[in-house]
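Memo to structure team: turn this sequence into structure tokens by end of day. - J.P.
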Amino acid sequence: MPELPEVETLVQQLKKRVLGKKITQIEIIDPKVVDPKIKKISPFKITKIYRRAKSIIIETNNNYFLHVHLRMTGHFHFAPKTKLSSLDPYKKFIVAKFHISDDSLLTHNSIRKFGHINLLNKQQLQKELSKLGPEPLDKKFTLKKFKEIITKKYRANVKTTLMDQNFIAGVGNIYAQEALYHAHIDPRRKISSLEEKEISLLYQQIRKVLHKAIQHHGTTVENYVHIEGTGGFQKYLAVYQKNSCPKKHPTKKTTLGGRGTFYCPQCQK
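Reply from structure team:
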């Protein structure tokens, strides 16, 4: 599932291509993935695009919001009017087409159709987003704030807690594993066992790993692609789906919170 860096990459790319533009027509091919009610608010202008956790929020000039969750295999593809044929390879998985006033085209594609684009009003959006924890890259997410919230879950497992969207928004299976490796923390440990210096290092590594992943447009290990191609952070992964860590120690794989988890028994204690 795309995590914070992958979604942030898409948000920045969508801003460059469709922010401020007018959607003149919408073709909904799969109403199970894309809310049919979106057609009723067309035409509309896209006034804002931003990320919250693993979701993309597209704000319209008529006070509605498209709440986009990509899940495992959701993608956007864009083509200017002179290159519409470039979308042909993706036709099989198109679930919606957004026709733009300059004759360009934005498509939403979903291979396994686990994601969604829902139409929400302001109150509905606020209710949806209120369930989420703080953003780990926000200036307000200080070390003090991190310590406050993590110590409230002292009986919980550290790795599954990092993936809890009510705890921190946007961190998933890949970046939880990577941050824990760089913080030298065994993902199986309870939060109550962490020393203060370990909590501080974990906070630093969460932010560092996420920033670096954004710089490389996310991680492509299976299906993730962005509008301009594939991610590049997979070249820098330390333990995720690796047989050995950067120090050449053999890794081990366990299951935590129902997710496969790689770690290095020698580097992570």
